[in-house]
Fold:
Amino acid sequence: MTAVRVPLALCLLGALPGAGGCLFVPLTTHRACQTENRNLSELSRAQAVELQTLRTHARAKEDHLLQAERALARIEEELGISRHQLAGFRREREQLHEQFEGLAGHLGRVPPEVGRQLTELSERFPSLEFDPATGLSKFDTDILFASGEAELKPEAEEVLTELARVLNAAEGKDLRILVAGHTDNQRIAGRPVRERYPTNFHLSTARAHAVAELLRSRDMEGHRVAVAGFGPHQPIAPNATPADRRKNRRVEVFVLAPQVPVVGWTETIPSVYR
Structure:
């Protein structure tokens, strides 16, 4: 049986002017149109789904943006508080610095007349150095003591007696004296010396005590004088040469104003001893 391809008659009323309202379209064209129509429908649905997805994503982004803005607002608020606290800390630091500077100023704030006399004394005795800015009088221990000894040399008594005279004058009667002994890093030599001074701590403290005792023997009240021994542990030179080691062998006399707090002097920092 022979197959016959019969065109599909489609009547499109009024579709073509003068064509009698009817148009015959081949079946293949019709099916192509249907396929294209389905493709367009599927594309439309896919675009609709994509649009919905984009809207959902946009809403999520908006939510994230809102959360980020709220978090930023909290951070800005906390930052404002932190800046305020930081400003407070800076003010406190400045106040503490001012107090420290004040105390440092008191340390060197010996009465002008006392400072003048100590300066003159250091000019008369080269073994004595006086720093008006810190109130420090420093002695070369080789002038005061023989090697490995804590007994003052006779020539040391003159300069220490003059020092006591200045500090006992009316202008200096309220000043306190801290005598600090220092050594170099060399081991105590000789068994007899080590029996008296087992370590440099013992030797430095004994030398400071000898200076303090002489000052007290020159009518300086005992409550004004204190001693400390640092041994070799506060060098001012490298201990590498004999000259440097000589710099480290020293006795320092600190002249302290009454209001300078010093641990051990209960009246200067009474809160520690309550």
In short: Residues 1-16 have pLDDT under 50 and may be disordered. The CA atoms of residues 5 and 19 lie 23 Å apart. Residues 112-273 form a domain with the 60s Ribosomal Protein L30; Chain: A; fold (CATH 3.30.1330.60).
